[in-house]
Amino acid sequence: xxxxxxxxxxxxxxxxxxxxxxxxxxxxxxxxxxxxxxxxxxxxxxxxxxxxxxxxxxxxxxxxxxxxxxxxxxxxxxxxxxxxxxxxxxxxxxxxxxxxxxxxxxxxxxxxxxxxxxxxxxxxxxxxxxxxxxxxxxxxxxxxxxxxxxxxxxxxxxxxxxxxxxxxxxxxxxxxxxxxxxxxxxxxxxxxxxxxxxxxxxxxxxxxxxxxxxxxxxxxxxxxxxxxxxxxxxxxxxxxxxxxxxxxxxxxxxxxxxxxxxxxxxxxxxxxxxxxxxxxxxxxxxxxxxxxxxxxxxxxxxxxxxxxxxxxxxxxxxxxxxxxxxxxxxxxxxxxxxxxxxxxxxxxxxxxxxxxxxxxxxxxxxxxxxxxxxxxxxxxxxxxxxxxx
Amino acid sequence: xxxxxxxxxxxxxxxxxxxxxxxxxxxxxxxxxxxxxxxxxxxxxxxxxxxxxxxxxxxxxxxxxxxxxxxxxxxxxxxxxxxxxxxxxxxxxxxxxxxxxxxxxxxxxxxxxxxxxxxxxxxxxxxxxxxxxxxxxxxxxxxxxxxxxxxxxxxxxxxxxxxxxxxxxxxxxxxxxxxxxxxxxxxxxxxxxxxxxxxxxxxxxxxxxxxxxxxxxxxxxxxxxxxxxxxxxxxxxxxxxxxxxxxxxxxxxxxxxx
Lengths: 389, 258
What we know:
heterodimer, A: alpha/beta, 10-stranded mixed beta sheet, 14 helices, disordered N terminus, B: alpha+beta, 8-stranded mixed beta sheet, two-stranded antiparallel sheet, 6 helices, 29% helix, 22% strand
């Protein structure tokens, strides 16, 4: 069954994707080998999450809604009156150590994010510290600085893929959301630049309530599919500057409409089955985020930590995450985007926090439970769920 | 038989204090949205797609007998508060569980699903042949259904009652139940879906995933299951590692040979 899973994974690849994988195998055989091992790893109970790295939250935009805004210095200064953030921040040696630990565990993918990664002065150093021969490196970007020269440069230093944000196919709407006139045009320029440089490309967009039914969204699906570009759709979440904006949160109908659109267009969410893997929500199992203070969060949008890498090895942090009853078990829906109980817990625990993420033990802990009822016969609280492996 | 109910007010198996592999309390977050049972449609689809020859009157009588038997037993009655689906299985000698599932039951379900939901899809996500790669899980009592199918048609009711139970915990729970109950396998689950394709259709809440608990894969880490993906329905396999979680449900079958 394990060999069959691996074979099925290869059979599921489109001709173009198979070509890309074969190209990667020739250029970076070590990474390709790690990719090929993922199906077997998962079949044996292991995980191989993508590592998102938030070394800096500097950004040249101030979008209407941003999940990273509360991590930014400008928010700390302006809103929380914090004159100086004296917390220890990760440096290149920490990134090299993270890369080493991740590689030891068989992890194969890093995403450089922020903020806006392309404003980072040491972006090239970060890529080098991760090591593009050991890990498949992706960068997020709003596209403002991504012209042909930049795209070529990214390719030369070993970046494999770009994830480019586009909030609407209507230029004025995108510009308005980004609070930056001209940003839509820059995204279109960036698309051409990335494809010309022969980098892999995903366009990423956010699904707010009702958007899946709009012509604009269908136009976006059509635009990206026609150009052979995958459209990665993230559900709107009540986090960051969208906290308390529950009117944006999707319902099941929105999610199911999108699932039907997956059959027509090259569009997917983080819960879409891919390469034979039916993970559902990918907290810890499919993705983690390492913040600028070396905290590890289980998802880009959950502001509660499962451990700090200066205190706890990555392996232990991942095990901790997988045994958490909210994060480890298989589920088909987006935890922070769709589960009302978890959304409330998250909102309550992060409300008023000066520094995010909330540390391990104060947000998530080994005492977490999906239910908090008392068992009538004994008066004891419910037994925490254990994942038996 | 004890008079204490084995099932809670929502029809879920009650987990004994200290039991492992099952959560004592569950949120019931993942929901099966049961519509009123449409017995004529269940019968018609079973006739059309599985070729059963039992009369509707006899089918209805046996289903009602099973339901009455459950209702009159205080330890079982709560089962009827939870979702439950009647089914009928054809008379067939099963020498190759995987082969029969793949060649007869899966195509039958695909056709029945398309008839009910012409805009949506049933997908068999398992590409490889299941020939001779499936066996019956020991102590599941599923061999009783297989033997009954060899002799005649089988009428039963499926009860997705063991949410947040592992397969092992479900086997332990089964020991409390009378011999007419078995852990649900492939044929009973698939027959229930053929008669009622909308079991996992839920446009408001997310439905759970239903294991074919009594079927064992050649690679014992993997088990088979039915899962909704939006409005579509998938037949698939994945490793379970002996775990339980609120998304996973094991089912019970009560049946009679006719």
